[in-house]
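Re-running the complex after MR caught last week's input typo. The corrected sequence lines follow. Everything else is unchanged.
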Amino acid sequence: MAGVLIFSENQGLALELLTAANSLNSTAVSACVINNDEQAQALASAGVKVYIVKNNDLVMADVGAIAGAVKQVADKVGADTVLLASNRRGKELAGRLAQAMNAGCLTDVTALSIEGDKILCQRNALGGATVATQHIDADKKVIAIRPRTFESAASAGAGSVEEAAVEVKKAGVAVLEFKSRAGDTVDIEAAEVLVAVGQGLNSQDDLPAVEELAKKLGGEVACSKPVATDKKWLSEERIIGLSGKKCKPQLAVLLGISGQVQFTVGIRDAKTIVAVNSDENASINQMADYIITADLHDVVAEMNKKLG
Amino acid sequence: MNIVVAMKQIPDLQQIRIRNRQPILDDVPLTLGNIDKNGLEAGVNLRDELGGKVTVLLAGNENIEDTVKEALAAGADEAFLVIDDSLDRAESSVIANVLAASIKQMEEPSLILFGEGSGDNYSGQVGSRVAEILNLPQVSFASSIEIKGNQAVVTRSLEDGEEIVQVDLPAVIAVLADINEPRIPSVTQILKAGKKPKEVLELDELEVEAGKAMVITTSNLAPETERKRVVVKSVDELIQALTTEGYVGR
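Corrected-run output:
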């Protein structure tokens, strides 16, 4: 495998990409960093050669300009494969960078392996009903990898940082304002235990009991999409599913969730799944380890009482 | 303002069955991508506010002539269709080439709208690729769009916050499913949809090298679910099971 370049604006995800890149038997792994000295140092400490682009005309919001910059760095270092993170910024960049490089592209990749000269990628297809194994059949490749598919690269020393100059072609996007998501900074992807509620939950007033149960089990509260986007009872940070988070907790307790594939795709990698549903034929029961057919509100109240 | 909404014809995902881990797509009705419908709704709302027209753009097999009626009923003014069997759920780079070439044939649209990802593959590449081919600015994961003269103010919803950007038009914008609630067309609208203008091109009438697919799929199977599926009769039994598994009383 020829050169592999990694890029993510997010330092934690860039360190995960380094682990992914190191698994590809490449002769040369390098990292591209844009306007972020701290990230450059962190990657260098993990043993990779870093090319940092410093140019105040280059802003992350201008995806066309970022794609142009990353392409120029890839050309400079002779990388034919670029690994991106499949967070939102990375996913938006992936198609544009691939088009600029004349590359084939896969996003939302959840596993990588090498077979001969192919990089086999797994990703969900058909709305999450299936998992496809795909590879890119082109000289240039852009692969965007889901967060937490790989561990962060550990410190390994021996990296370096070199400045790379690029031509910046601004594409007419300017940032007016950035509003941080204040308040809810929960990270359900990192939780060992999740207690997830679906549309079986009667009311927002029932949430404190669910939160109590999550706390007793040492976990976080999560939800199916409608609970956050339609009912707005919980923040979008807590959505499990195809357009939400893909979680791999040890234990998932699913309360009043019917089990549509758009949801289950985000939780099917949990080690143990408990389904609580009043419908004994709910499709969620097909993918549960422990099934209890009962009203979720009663189950939550009794568990809270008995777990002390 | 001329608005193009690119949409994808997909099998109705709710009706796909799995047999021996294989998805069964035969006889599954065709529909339009669910998030594409949010793109259409956003386009129709902007047209209603600002005037102009909404052209819905599809590339696919001959069935798109029928499938597109759903979009014409839901408010699009006209359709631009590129038909070839090879375009049925074709790879992103191929579709992007065809869509970009189609857009070049239109009166220059101010806004080209997509859903953030297709309903079936959810790869989210096509909008970004089209923006690059047409050398246009882009904003994906849009949760609001406001037009101000020859610019748009768009909220890009990211994991850690909302980035409000100003973008020069024409631009490519891919919307989030949360941006709106797509309308359900009335029977009258559905009946009228068949009469709306459609420009139908064969792929070879479009001056474009669609290119070959750059992604090969070697398998596509439902994941194996090895679950215990133990039915517990009471909360006590459940707590006992969770204790045995080591989740309770740690």
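None of the earlier attempt is carried over here. The domain at 3-163 of chain A is CATH 3.40.50.620 (Rossmann fold). Chain A has a mean pLDDT of 94.
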